[in-house]
Design goal:
two-stranded antiparallel sheet; binds zinc ion
């Protein structure tokens, strides 16, 4: 069940200590929308943990960063990535690896597309 706006807002507020947290309501609204892509509050919390603790980001994520986490680009065979996007033994060419964290499924960028 998707999370509601109030829950998403609470999660987004959890990012407010980071650099470049938007002061603009519209920008916060976009973060909120992106956060609602989380499948559950736990998944949202896992993202915040992942972003701040695992990746040690000092900067607030952009809505696209949040969406990439919850809705990684599908492997369609037409992935417009690098030429190495086919045949990777880790991700099968999708560029994303499914990881389980606290029982919640997420995805992380494979080393073959990570800059
Ligand atoms: Zn890969």
């Amino acid at each position: 069940m998707p999370i509601d706006a109030a829950q998403a807002y609470k999660l987004v507020r959890g990012l407010s200590g980071l650099n470049y947290y938007p002061s603009d309501d519209d920008a916060v609204g976009l973060l909120l929308k992106a956060m609602q892509a989380a499948s559950s509050v736990e998944a949202g919390e896992a993202f915040v943990d992942h972003w701040t603790l695992t990746l040690r980001n000092r900067d607030c994520p952009k809505p696209g960063d949040i969406l990439d986490y919850f809705q990684p680009p599908k492997s369609s065979g037409e992935f417009l990535g690098s030429p190495q996007s086919t045949g990777c033994s880790l991700c099968g060419g999708s560029g994303w690896i499914i990881v389980e964290r606290k029982g919640v499924e997420g995805a992380k960028k494979c080393t073959c597309i990570a800059a």
